[in-house]
Amino acid sequence: MGSTPIRSRLTKRSNSMVETSAVVVADTSVVINLNATDRAAEILSALPFRVVVTDIVVAELQGDRRSGRSDSELLKELVRASNIRVVSLGEAGMHVFGELVVGPTADTLDDGEAATIAYAVECEFAPVIDERKALRICADRFPSLRPLCTVDLFAEASVVAAVGQGNLTDAVFRALQEARMRVPFERVPWVVDLIATDRAALCPSLPKAARRR
Asked: In angstroms, rounded to a whole number, what is the distance separating the alpha carbons of residues 192 and 184?
């Protein structure tokens, strides 16, 4: 289950939150996926970089009803434990945000995705997003960004080592079942190899080909 270290794919600026650490900015769905694992704090603590979310994502989670959990409250616990930090868009970020939420539906994003990408552009951090539309728009408008997905966080070598393969298998399976985590095409083999084909067949968010026993 090898994985290219994410740290080498991240960009930094000199006035980042922690001078010697890389930072990624996570979308709403990423927080939901992490919460569904029941090991969010353990996973975040094992990552070799900091994770931030925008206050717009925090607000979006307050109204989210996609799970039986209170993702807003779970996020607050992660923030209190310093596993995640909440940040706000600056002037430049707000300008990008406006461009991403105004216009034809096919070319605009919801507030959380737009804020995540806008903050990534403003600070030159890597956005962590899973939705295909958001990834497409990010690639089209901001080709210099190198977005990650939730699975990239799970596959980081330090997370595998800290959580253990068996526990990680269960955690990823819960994210797929409970949060219906989306998995980019290129990451599907890693996921199926981790959770095995029998479990993959029970995950509707995976492609049909990956769910065949």
From this structure: 12
